Amino acid sequence: MKRIAGLLTFLLFILQGLLAQPVTDTLAKKGKDSLVVTIPVDTITVKKPLVPVAAWQTRLGIPLHVQVLEHMPYFSFGKQPLVAGGQLKKRTDKDFLFYGLIGLLLYFAVLRLLFPKYLIDLWRLFFRTTLKQRQLTEQLSQTPLPSLLFNLLFVIAGGLYAAFLFYYTENRVPVHNFWLFVLYCCAGLAGVYLVKFVSLKATGWVFNVRALTDTYIFIVFIINKVLGIFLLPVLFIVAFSPAGVAGAAWVLSWIVIGGLLLYRYILALSAVRTYVQVSVFHFFLYFCAFEVAPVLVLYKLVITIFK
């Protein structure tokens, strides 16, 4: 049995060798034929265009890979892209504007939490809902810190409103950085009222009418504080609303601002008449000379400088 098993094993090895040899030869032949037939020599040949490359020198301050890409002969990385068949889409990012307006709103909320009585007295005096107007006036005059902070709110809100208004009327911002232009508007608004405050104080001291000038200054800044609070929702509407809603908000804001200014001059005229006899005509001359003319001159100066 052992001899028979060994013989069978030997015959199996011989048979396996005989069967494997023709299969290997055919596979080898087929592989050689397929390589020759399916992969021609022309398909693996790369023909590059003969483009002369001029010599260039490296420049300081520019990364080397950027300079290499600019001087590549096959791709025009250093030239302007071609825009054909449409308009270039410009991305308008209002994230910083949103955060800035939210910060301004939080600033007003902090003032409201820190000085609730001052804000209540301010509304009472503005709407004349109480007979103790002289007492409220004295209380508001004796709190310089909240008065200064609310005036700062008016300056920031008024500067943003002026920047938005300039962009709405001129359809552009004269300064490359929008926030720098807002800073200019805030500084200009603060400068106008600072000059007005100093000139009125000097006038009261020179003509010995300090009570009259102090009353007029108090009325001016009370209206400014109310105007600064009113401008907060207007800024959000004109910044993030569609064109139709923003246009309606602009018209409404102009009407309210005009009404507040008219109300301020009515209060000022009634306060002035308690000290001196002034006609409406003379007060109108004062209004045109010291209120309207400086604003128009400042606007013309800004347009001239930035153009």
Quickly describe the structure.
The protein is mainly α and 307 residues long.
Descriptive terms for the model:
75% helix; 10 helices; mainly alpha; 307 residues
Structural class: mainly alpha
Order of helices and strands: HHHHHHHHHH
Largest sheet: none
What integer value in Å does the Rg equal? 41 Å
| Average pLDDT rating | 77
Q: Report the principal-axis shape.
A: elongated
| Proportion of strand residues | under 5%
Q: How helix-rich are the residues, as a percent range?
A: over 70%
What do you see in this structure?
The protein is elongated. The protein has ten helices and no strands. It is mainly alpha-helical. About 7% of the residues have low confidence.
Tell me the layout of helices and strands.
Layout (H helix, E strand, L loop, with lengths): L1 H37 L25 H7 L24 H20 L1 H12 L5 H9 L2 H27 L7 H29 L3 H31 L2 H31 L6 H27 L1
Helix pairs in contact: 3-6, 3-8, 4-5, 6-7, 6-8, 7-8, 8-9
